[in-house]
Design brief:
heterodimer; A: 254 residues; alpha/beta; Rossmann fold; 2 domains; 6-stranded mixed β-sheet; 9 helices; 32% helix; globular; B: 346 residues; mainly alpha; ABC transporter involved in vitamin B12 uptake, BtuC; 15 helices; disordered N terminus
Amino acid sequence: MIRLCNVSFSYDDKSIIKNISLRLEKGKIYSVIGPNGSGKSTLLKLIGKLRTCDGGNITLDGKDYGEYSRKAFARCVASLPQSRNIPMIRSWELVSHGRFPYLDGRRVLSKEDRLIVDRSLRLAGAEEFALRSVSELSGGERQKVYLSMLYAQEAEYILLDEPTTFLDMSSKFGVMNTLTDMKEAGKCVVAVLHELSLALKYSDEIIVLSHGEIVFSGTPKELVEGNILGDVFGIKAVCVTIDGSNEYIIKEVG
Amino acid sequence: MNISEKSFTRRSYRSKTAGVMMILGVLLILSFLLSVLFGSTGAKLTDAVRAFISGNYTDASLRIILYIRLPRAVAAVLAGAALSVSGVIIQAVLNNSMASPNIIGVNSGAGLAVSIVVAIFPFMADYLPIAAFFGALSSCMLIYFISARTNSSRLTITLVGISISSILSAGINAVRTIFPDSIYNTNTFMVGGFSGVSFADISFAWKFILAGILFSVFLGKDIDILSLGEESAMSLGMNVKMKRFILLATASILAGSAVSFAGLLGFVGLLGPHISRRICPSSHRSLIPISALIGGIIVSICDLIGRVIFAPYELPVGIIMSFVGGPFFIGLILMGRKSRVYDQVM
């Protein structure tokens, strides 16, 4: 379990994250939502050890983050940042980078590593473009390759910053279904999402941030039934059942 | 597609890379031989061989080939390889496909250090590669710290690099003005050239270049990871700051060593990496040797053209490279977006 205890973070004397406490458990999807500038990405970076908090502490399975070496931490927690370069390499090679935390000084993939890379591509549905250059793939295909890389990293905690942005609807559902597969495999998935309907449909818990503080943390049902969405976003969500599954329609409060 | 089929295809990709390297190796040997065979004078290899066999070591052809063309051909290959690999590393570390040792001021930093040593401490001329290394490293670090502190865009980093390059070039010109007789053939030094290069000039630098290229290949996987972006690399467990420092120091050793005997040779550091990626987009473990071979070929051929095109007069290789490389590079950009490796962000 990842546990944040009174965590705060400032940048240029501006307080971005204020006194946040949180528990993230395996086997669940957590969505972090909130208006622009509310500190969602910063929170994810703090959880992913890409930034160090100014106050409070974060523990992973009872041990402080500082006690983990970089590689040991990467074997437990994997992050997919929102902005990343698109290298001109084949998808298979990109996915193989997920094995980096397991490589020794020679940086040579073992036979087992190669099999894990193959399996990861298959799990994320990216097998068919394994040998195509990443730069030639569509946004949705590319995202599948990056998700394969996360699989290859074999971390128990998966952090994603806006994984569905700029994707078409079919690809968005594809990404969310892969995250559900990860959850069902026992992983903890934490995603910053802008699309509220996706967050409500796929999450086990939703964390709402506003001005660097958690204003709500609970199930989608609790969020829809409360007044938080109206207060923070000026919207309300309505749950409808289509073909037996819950879907959410977002409406502006006017 | 099952795993065994994919594995087979991966093997075919590996053999493609090996094939590319073999072809480039043959081209490098050919360009090297042509550099030794042809020059601004009419010295012939047959005459030199005949003189060597008969023990006539004072023969003009033999002396020209042994003491002028041969060191020059070796220097061209070494400088081309070093600057091209330095360009690959700098582009990866700064995440900027427009960065190269000459554009961001690494060459100028090395050049200023060389100028100062030659002008003020001429008795330390044996240590020129070391001075060039520190000059190159200072420029590299300056750019790196500015980009790291300000979180600048790629365009800003390039503009900062151009400004630093301009300041350092002004420094070189100031040294040249104050100590006009300090650098032999200063015009050639400013544009880059191999006129008058001897084995003594490269005796120190070649070891650094060879070691630098081998070390870069060894760090190839790390450069691949770094090329994904800072946060992705950190997420994979890399100590990004330390790795960047090591890589920039390696790029500085390569560029500094080349500048110490070739002068401010530009463009190959930009051209080499871009051509390499077009030919064989691959991991840096393959890209670096390919880039070294291409850099060596480019400089070798450009130097040969410079020597024979207006023979017996010579044009410094830097001028030829700009004439040939400029249009070629524009063509590469117009032909497609494939060379914009580090410009694509999602």
